[in-house]
Design goal:
Oligomer: single chain
Order of helices and strands: EEEHEEEEEEHEE
Number of helices: 2
CATH topology: Metal Binding Protein, Guanine Nucleotide Exchange Factor, Chain A
Largest sheet: 5 strands, antiparallel
CATH class: Mainly Beta
Structural class: mainly beta
Length: 119
């Protein structure tokens, strides 16, 4: 199991497998948040602690909801909405113990302009 936790520990997420890759996006929200995303099918994400307590932020095209801890403010994950891909989620890999994701390749995604990978 791979676990991600916000700074205060109020929100804990689990996935069964180490991510195959991580994504660094430069879109207007991701570059401000400094997130590093690990994508999973929705049924592979378990919210171990804090389910129903995270605060969603839905922006622009309303395709996803970014969730953060109401106590410490860490962005924990996003969930796809019906206007996007509701079967997909991503966890903020910055909340995973670095040893757990050591060596996982990071892809750079141009979400600000071309909507393509830059590598």
């Amino acid at each position: 199991m791979i676990e991600a936790s916000c700074h205060c520990g109020a929100v804990r997420l689990q996935v069964a497998e180490r991510p195959q890759r991580l994504t660094s996006c430069n879109c207007s929200i991701c570059r401000r948040l400094g997130t590093l995303w690990a994508y999973y099918p929705r049924d592979q994400l378990t919210i171990v602690q804090g389910a129903g307590t995270t605060v969603p932020y839905i922006q622009g095209d309303r395709t996803l909801a970014l969730h953060h801890c109401p106590t410490c403010g860490c962005v924990t994950h996003w969930e796809g909405l019906p206007a996007g891909d509701p079967a997909r989620v991503a966890i903020n890999a910055r909340l995973i113990d670095p040893a757990e994701i050591d060596g996982v390749p990071v892809r750079r995604f141009d979400g600000a302009d071309t909507w393509t990978y830059l590598d």
